[in-house]
Amino acid sequence: MSSRYRWFVVAVFFVFMLLHQSDKLLIGPLTTPIMETFGINEAQMGAISTGALIVAAVFFPLWGYLSDRYARAKLLAAASFIWGSTTWLNAIAPNYSSFLVTRASTGIDDSSYPGLYSLISDYFGPQVRGKIYGLLQLTAPIGYLMGMILALTLRDAIGWRGVFYITGSLGVLLAVVIYFGVREAPRGKSEPELAVLDQAEVGQFRFDWKIARQLFRKRSLLLLFVQGFFGVWPWHVVTYWFFRYLETERNYSTNDVMVTMVVAVLVLAAGYPVGGAVGDYLFKRTPRGRLMTAGAAVLLGAILLLITLNVPLESKPLFLAMLCATALFIPFAAPNVISTVYDIALPEVRSTASAIQYFIESGGAALAPLLAGIIAVNASLKDAILIICISAWILCAIFLALAAYLVPRDIETLRSQMRERAQLLGGAKG
Q1: How far, in whole angstroms, is CA 181 from its chain's centroid?
Q2: What are the angstrom distances between the C-alpha of 243 and each of 144, 246, 252, 348?
Q3: Were 112 and a residue from 12, 79, 100, 161 both cysteine, which residue would form a disulfide, CB within 3.0 to 4.6 Å?
Q4: What topology is assigned to 3-429 in CATH?
């Protein structure tokens, strides 16, 4: 496929993920009006976010399996349609109980990303995947920023329900674009050893349960799975509660919140491609490069967050400066972890591998908003954010260091398997 078309696919998925993340993360800046509508406390609001995360976790294995068996582009179109439909249902919920259920249903499509990343891995080779994934993962912070702007500018004019109507409609529209505009790519086509083969030859390798089970024999991959359980805690705590922390504990006005969050989120967004590029750069020099980048970044993030939240309330410029410094390093791990998963897993089980990763991450993430809400009720949001984020990052740094030590062997195993396939298919062709 042409280079221009590859970038068209990246652009389509970037828009899909950007709007999807905006819809998914609207719950943060809309927390206060939703709580007021239903008359609920922080723990009950945390349960709403936790419900969607639990549903997403349950569906990750299914989406991963389907994405390794069937056309990923068509499945992603279906995911976009589900996103739009469930968001509309959430908007019309009349009471807390129905809102809790319908918000949980929005988690169904949240677990479709393994197929997206797997499809992209067949458009771009291993030497540049960190940068591509970093670019796509820009959508999380920018989507949060878009959601925040939508919420602050429209919630008073059309209400939080009206905002959900808008984002749900965009999901249905994008389903049409993906269905007709994105083509499937042969699994493994971008691997250097298979690049000289035609699409029909590369496509001979299909999902196999035996190969999928072998994922659990890769020690570095198992360590990445474990760190993922804790690694998502900080993101979900900050996403769902930082907006309210600024409002209620730092006494920021709506304008102060918007300025602070816009600046911090833009810096955080830059961290994804920068982290991916640094990981790619070091990966070319050592197979441990990506995980070294990730481990160092999470430790630095923990230190900077501790300093940031202890800045005096009256020192708003210093708080913003430290918040930006923290935000830059928080996302470094994300593109490097997913790239490493694909450096280890065979092409026909990559959706399954990343689905397992996300399944485990969702299990941890499901606890984070509720746990933060409970801590906040009994202490403060500051304590909740610090306790959860710092403890999670320290644990992640330990697991990433162990994975970095072990990963060269697992990467070499994959490269050896690719060489064997190239020889097998090349010999059969001859």
Answers
A1: 24
A2: 11, 5, 10, 41
A3: 79
A4: Growth Hormone; Chain: A; (1.20.1250)
Q: What is the pLDDT of residues 228-280, one digit of tens each?
A: 888 888 877 887 788 788 888 898 887 888 788 888 888 988 899 999 999 99
Nearest in space to 13 (alpha carbons), one of 90, 118, 149? 118
- Provide the token pair at 219: 């020690």
End-to-end CA distance of the chain: 24
Distance of CA 165 to the CA centre of its chain: 23
66-98 pLDDT per residue, tens? 988 888 999 999 999 999 999 988 888 888 889
Question: What's the burial of 231, exposed, middle or buried (CB within 10 Å: 0-12/13-18/19+)?
Answer: buried
Non-local (6+) Cβ contacts of 319 within 8 A are: 250, 260, 308, 311
More confident position, 398 or 32:
398
Largest distance between two CA atoms of the chain: 74
| Cβ pair 364, 233 in contact under 8 A | yes
Token pair for 430: 């001859």
DSSP helix, strand, coil percent of the chain (3-state; round to 5)? 85, 0, 15
Cβ(159)–Cβ(4) under 8 Å? no
Residues in the chain: 430
What are the residue ranges spanned by the domains of the chain? Answer: 3-429
Q: Which amino acid is at 9?
A: V
Can you list the positions of beta strands (E) in 280-420?
none
H helices within 26-138, ranges in order? 31-38, 42-69, 72-91, 96-105, 107-110, 113-121, 129-137
Tokens standing for residue 326: 């923290």
Q: What is the mean pLDDT of residues 185-204?
A: 67
Q: How many angstroms separate the CA atoms of 232 and 362, rounded? A: 8
What lies within 8 Å, CB to CB, of 288 at 6+ separation is: 282, 404, 405, 407, 408
Q: Is 158 exposed, middle or buried (0-12, 13-18, 19+ CB in 10 A)?
A: middle
